Amino acid sequence: MDTEQVFKALADANRMDTEQVFKALADANRRTLLDRLFQRDGQTLGELQSALPDMTRFGVMKHLQVLETAGLITTHKVGREKFHYLNTVPIQQVYDRWVSKFSQPWARSLVDLKTVLEETPMTEKPNHVYEVFIKTTPEQLWNALTQGDITRLYYFGTRVKSDWKPGSAYAYHYDSPEAQVMLEGEVLEADPPRKLVTTFRPVWNDSPEGQRTSRVTFEIEQLGPACRLVLTHSGLNPDAPLTMGIGSGWAQILSGLKTLLETGDPLVIATPQAEEA
C-alpha cells in the first residue's frame, strides 16, 4: 500500500468528522431515528421504520446509512437480524470541545454475570456497541487500555491494575491516597493487541444493581495508520434506572482515549466522586 492509499484508508476510516456529524444531524428525520434509539437502543430497520410511517423502507435505510457514515450509529448482526445502536462518541467529542466544563455526573448500573454467561443466550443482542477510529497503533491502543499510568488520564482519574492473564482479577483505583476501588472484575480473554474481554462490577455504586456484574469486550483492528476500536457491553438490564448512564460514561471514556492518543493531552472530565462532593 503506497502513501496515497494509506491516507485514503485513514480518510475512509475516520467517519466521525465534525462536519459529517452536523450534516447528519441537520435532517429532522435522522434526528427522529436517533431519538428512537435513545429511547431504546438496539432496534431493527423494521422497528425504526415505525418512527417514520410516511417513509418507505428504502428511505429509512438511506437515512440510517448517513447516520452510520457519520459514526452516529453502529450496527450489530445476530443471525439474520441487524440491530442499530446509538453511538454517542462523536456527539461526546463535540460536547467535550465546547461544553465539557459543565459535564454531568457519570451514573450506571449492571446486572449479574450469571445472566450474561449462563441464563442469557450468547446470540442475544448486546446492550451497547460503540465504535471509534483513533490515529494510533494497535500496540499503543492496547497499552492505553491496560496500563494504569495511562488510564488515569482518561478513565475518570483511575489507575487500572492487573497482569491481564485470563482468570486474573483487575481493578480501577482512584488516584488518591486511599486508592479507593471504582470498579473491578475478571479477565475472561486477552489477545494483545487485538481483543480484551472482562467482567465488569461497579464497586462505586452500593445499590443491589451496582453490585452485579456484566461483560465488556474491546476489539482492535488496524486500518492503515488508524485503529478501529469497537466496545461492546452485554448483560445490562435495560429496565434498570441507572443503565442509561452507562452510555454517557463510555462515550466520555472513549472520547478521552481518542483525544489523549492523538494529541497527547488529556480531557478534563469530572469524576463521579468530584460531582458528588
Summarize the model shown.
The protein is an alpha+beta fold and 277 residues long. It has helices spanning 3-13, 18-25, 28-39, 45-49, 57-69, 89-98, 113-119, 138-146, 148-151, 244-263, 272-276, and strands at 73-78, 81-86, 128-134, 158-161, 169-174, 181-191, 195-200, 214-223, 226-234. It is built from eleven helices and nine strands.
Short descriptors:
alpha+beta, 7-stranded antiparallel β-sheet, 277 residues, two-stranded antiparallel ribbon, disordered C terminus, 11 helices
Q: Provide the gyration radius in Å.
A: 19 Å
- Total of helices: 11
User: First CA to last CA: what distance?
Assistant: 53 Å
How helical, in percent, are the residues?
Answer: 25-40%
Structural features, described:
The longest helix is centred in the last third of the chain and has 20 residues, at 244-263. This protein has 11 helices and 9 strands. The strands form 2 sheets. A 7-stranded antiparallel sheet has the order 3-9-8-7-6-5-4, with helices on both faces. Strands 1-2 form a two-stranded antiparallel ribbon. α6 crosses α10 (244-263). It is of the alpha+beta class and 277 residues long. A hairpin with a 3-residue loop joins β6 and β7 (195-200).
Q: Mind sketching the topology for me?
A:
Blueprint: H1 3-13, H2 18-25, H3 28-39, H4 45-49, H5 57-69, E1 73-78, E2 81-86, H6 89-98, H7 113-119, E3 128-134, H8 138-146, H9 148-151, E4 158-161, E5 169-174, E6 181-191, E7 195-200, E8 214-223, E9 226-234, H10 244-263, H11 272-276
Antiparallel strand pairs: 1-2, 3-9, 4-5, 5-6, 6-7, 7-8, 8-9
Helix pairs in contact: 6-10
